């Protein structure tokens, strides 16, 4: 079923910086596919970031050895470098596979392809304020309203890219919804997609290897079940391997070929376990721990998983910001956001991380965006 949306308006590199040149010998840049150019440039950015990290490492190492100081910073930097190197290798493999394939990629939301700008759907709405969708541009930190979708609901999951946004599950008038909607910006239409097998609210979702994973949630009991939808082939949702721990309001991220489920609330405690989909994809394994939180944002940036905001008691909204290195299973405290927020979009580009919209402690809509600069380690508010 298809409906038109109801509109509701509101460096160049330095010469000699690298030995590698990813220009094709047989094609000029004008004749190459724009996505191929974008992917090549993104890989260049990754290698440049790696070079900068190496330079920082050697500077710190030399200084600390000279001063006879503790080398803890050096050890941490080694871990970061190792992660970045694995990320660069994975990115290159994905780029090559993509270039060899004639299929158009819909979306990869795991840091391998960073489509920018992106669609954002507010997770705060009610029957008087239907679901609101907009277009976020990181380069200007601006939010462009597009319109509202019908079918009132709350506590749904959102999966988005530069051209499409999926709204999954939720709740309305006491009913746990199995409804899935997709808005296509390029066509300006809303599409009713295949419904979930089970209605669920406060579920979490992401794209992983051309499939949508809907994980956990609540349906009068806290859920551990997982459903999977193949974007390429369509069809029905299928049952995936269950989580080890029941949870709602968690975060799910696709991290360079691996799927991680973090945090959430299990009905009694704020979940501290991290689960990872096994390489065989037939089970989830507990792979680490974290400070429990729910309703938070998560994204992948430069070889680490970053989490921010959410809540860890019924009476607070967090502004804390942390990063997780899956390679070493270690956490690092990062500078806190300026404003506590929950149910928001945490989005990473190649250069920065953005906290987009969301809700305050009193569930008021936050319209301001914050940008985290990894060079200065500061947040700036639009």
Automatic annotation (TrEMBL):
Keyword check for ATP-binding: no
One Gene Ontology term from the biological process aspect of the record: proteasome-mediated ubiquitin-dependent protein catabolic process
InterPro entries for this protein: Gal_Oxase/kelch_b-propeller, Kelch-BTB_domain-containing, Kelch-typ_b-propeller, Kelch_1
Transmembrane segments: none
A GO cellular component annotation in the UniProt record: Cul3-RING ubiquitin ligase complex
Region (Disordered): 1-34
SUPFAM superfamilies reported for this sequence: Galactose oxidase, central domain
GO molecular function, one term: ubiquitin-like ligase-substrate adaptor activity
Stretch forming the signal peptide: none
Biased composition (Basic and acidic residues): 10-34
Keyword line: Kelch repeat
A Pfam short name: Kelch_1
PANTHER family: KELCH REPEAT AND BTB DOMAIN-CONTAINING PROTEIN 13 (PTHR46375:SF3), KELCH REPEAT AND BTB DOMAIN-CONTAINING PROTEIN 13-RELATED (PTHR46375)
Protein name: Kelch-like protein 10
